[in-house]
Amino acid sequence: MIILASGSPRRHELLKKICPDFKIEPSDASEEVKASTPIELAVENARLKAEAVAKKFPSDVVIGADTIVELDGKILLKPVDADDARKMLRRLSAREHRVITGVAIVKGARVLTAHEITKVYFGEMSDEEIASYVATGEPMDKSGSYALQGGAAPFIKKIDGDWSNVVGLPLYRLRTLLKQWETTE
C-alpha cells in the first residue's frame, strides 16, 4: 500500500492523478528550519515527514513532500498572520521567485529523495489587490502566502517549470522517482 504523509487536500488530488489507490496519514514530524540551501531544506523536511509515518507503517511505501518558496535566497514560510501575508505578497509583486518541493519515498530503512524547482513570475499587485486576496484567508496556510490554483492565479504572469510543483506535489518528478523505486527494489 502507498501512504501519502500529508493532510494537504491539494497533494491528495494531485497524487490521485498518478496513483488512484493510496491511504492518507498526515505526518506529525517537526519541520526543520535550518539547512545550508533551500533545496536541502525541502528534501530534508520531506524525508522527515515520510519517515515519521513509515515508523507507524513499516511494510508500506510512504511518500512525503515539502514545498517552500524562495525569493532572493530567503525562504518565505507560511505567514504568521495577515500582516505577514501582505508583506510577503508585496515582496513577490512584479518579481520572479522559485518554488522548491522536496519529495521522499520511504519503506523501512530504504529512502529515495528528489526535488523539483519551478520559477514563478508574479505581475504587479496593488496594495488593494493584496489586501483583498489576504482577506479571503487563502494565503494563511500557504508557503509564500499564495495558491497558484486559487485566488492568486490572476497575479501569476507565467511559470517556468512544473505547475504541479507549485501546487505542492511535482507529479512528473514523483512518477519518475516511483519508477526508480520499483526498478531498484
Write down how many β-strands occur, each being a DSSP E stretch of 2 or more residues.
Answer: 7
Shape: elongated
Total helix count? 6
Largest β sheet strand count, sense and barrel closure: 7 strands, mixed
Poorly predicted parts:
none
Structural class assignment: alpha/beta
User: Percent range for helical residues?
Assistant: 25-40%
Our Rg estimate from Cα atoms comes to: 16 Å
What gap, in angstroms, lies between the N and C termini?
15 Å
Mean pLDDT: 94
% residues in beta strands = 25-35%
| Subunit arrangement of the protein | single chain
Order of helices and strands: EHEHEEHEEHEHH
Please summarize what this structure is.
The chain is an alpha/beta fold and 185 residues long. The protein has helices at 9-16, 38-56, 82-92, 127-135, 163-167, 171-184, and strands at residues 2-4, 23-24, 61-71, 74-76, 96-107, 110-122, 156-160.
Structure overview:
It is a single chain. By secondary structure, the protein is α/β, with parallel strands linked by helices. 36% of the residues lie in helices and 26% in strands. Strands 1, 2, 3, 4, 5, 6 and 7 form a seven-stranded mixed beta sheet that branches. A hairpin with a 2-residue loop joins strand 3 and strand 4.
Based on the model shown, name its key terms.
elongated; seven-stranded mixed β-sheet; 7 strands
How are the secondary structure elements laid out?
Elements: E1 2-4, H1 9-16, E2 23-24, H2 38-56, E3 61-71, E4 74-76, H3 82-92, E5 96-107, E6 110-122, H4 127-135, E7 156-160, H5 163-167, H6 171-184
Parallel strand pairs: 1-2, 1-3
Antiparallel strand pairs: 3-4, 3-5, 5-6, 6-7
Helix pairs in contact: 3-4
